[in-house]
Amino acid sequence: MLFWHSQPETFHQQSHANFIRDALAPFLKNEEERQTSENNAVMSPFQYILCAATSPAVKHQEETLTYLNQGQSYEIRMLNRKLVEYTDLCSKCVKSVVRVVFHDRRLQYTEHQHLEGWRWNRPGDRILDIDIPLSIGIVEPRAHPLQLNTIEFLWDPVKNASVFLQVNCISTEFTARKHGGEKGVPFRIQIDTFTSNEHGEYVEHVHSSSCQVKVFKPKGADRKLKTDREKIEKKTLQDKEKYQPSYESTILTDCSPWPESSCVNSTSSTPSPVYHSSPTSFSFPDGNCSPGHQGDVFLPSCSDNLQPSCSPQDTQQWLHRNRFSPFCRLFSSFSGADLLKLSRDDFIQICGPADGIRLFNAIKGRCVQPRLTIYVSQQQAHNQLIAKPREVYHALFLDELTVVELKEKMAGLFSVPFRQLQHVYKQGPTGIHVLVTDEMVQNLSQEASFVIRTLKDEGNDGYHVVLK
Hints:
Elements lengths: L1 H41 L3 E5 L14 E5 L3 E8 L13 E9 L2 H5 L1 H11 L6 E3 L7 E5 L7 E6 L5 E7 L19 E10 L5 E15 L3 H14 L3 H4 L9 E2 L1 E2 L7 H7 L25 H5 L1 H4 L8 H10 L14 H6 L2 H8 L1 H11 L8 E7 L15 E5 L4 H11 L7 E7 L5 E3 L2 H5 L5 E9 L6 E5 L1
Parallel strand pairs: 2-10, 13-17, 15-18
Antiparallel strand pairs: 1-3, 1-11, 3-8, 4-7, 4-9, 5-8, 6-7, 9-10, 10-12, 13-14, 15-16, 17-18
C-alpha cells in the first residue's frame, strides 16, 4: 500500500517538473545562447602573463596580489589567444602602452603631484624601465622623458612577444608617514593595446588588462612571499580554503582602458604647479600700494576667500591663485557653493591628508594668525613729540620676529627701499636710543604702538628708524 501511494505521488511531481521545464525550455535555450555569445564576445584577443608568483594570503573574493623587487627585470608574455578570429590584427603590428599607476582611488586623484614629487627626489631616474636586451619580439620601444611611469612599444600579434620591465619605485615611498614598518601602497601594472588606422596612427583601442602589485626593496618581495606562505601553512584546513592558492605566474585581468585626454597630455609636458607656484600668490598688488590697504598686502590669503557666488570658472581661478592647480581638473564643474559644502573629511579623502587639510583651511578662510602685531605711525614733523588724534596708525604683522622682517614690513608700508633702512632704534629712558635686536623684537608687547621718526645717515643716503 505504501508503494502504491508513493508511486502516483512521485509520478505527479515528475510530471509537474517536466511541465515547468517544457514551458521554460524556449527561455532557457535563449538564455543559454545569450550567455554563450556574451562569453565569446567578452573574450579578448590578447592575454598578458606576468612571470611572478601571486601571494597566497589573498582571499577568494579579492584580486590577486603580486610582490616585485625594486629594479629587478620581470617578464610579461604577450599572447594572441584568438589568432584565427582576429586575422585582421595579424597582418600588422600593434602598440602596447605599459603603465605603473596607483591602485588606491584616493591616490589616483593626486597621481601627477606624487609623480612630480618622486621626480624631484630622484632626479634622472624613471619609475618604469624596459630591459631591452632581455625583451623578445618588440620593436620601437619608447620612454617619454616626462612620463616616468609609462613605456610603449610595437609587437607583432602573429609572433608571441615578451617584454622585461623594471619598477624602480617602492610602495612605501608614497605612504604618508615614514617612521619604519609602514604598509606600502599597492600599484597596478596596466597594459593598453591599440591598432593602427588607415593613416598609420595607433588610436583604435582593442584591449586593456592589469594586475595589482606591491614593490619592495631588493629581495624584499621574496621574503614577503615566504612569510605569507608560512602564515597560511599555520592556519587550519578550514581557514586555508578561504584563500587563493599561490600561482607561479600572474594573469592580467581585463579592465577599462586608461583615460587619455588632452588635459592629461598637456600636464605631462609642463612643470608641476606644486613645485612652480605662481609668483603673484603672495606678492604686493600692482598699482597703488598705500598704507591704508596694508592689511590686504600682508595677509592676502585672508582677503581672497572663496565665495558661494563664485562660478565654476571663478573657482578654477581661485584654485590656481592659491596653488591648488593639480586639482583644477578634478573640481572643473564645482562652483564656490559646491566646494564650501564639502567637509574636512571629504577634502582629505579626495586630495590626501596634506593637501586636503590645506585646501579645507583655505576654503574656510582659516588664516594663520601672526605671532606679533604692532601699530606704527609716521611722525609728521621733527618737533612733534605727541601723536595727535588725526594721525593714523597702521598694523604690522610679524611671523619670524626678526629685525630684518621688521625693516621689510616698514619699508613696504611706507614705500621706502629696503636698502635705505640702516638701523632700527627704540627710544628708551631719558631719550636714549637702544639698538633693536632680534631678541628685543621677540619681547615686544602684543599690539604695542609706536611713532616712527627717521634720522638721516650722514655717511650715505640711508636712514635710521627710531621707534618712540
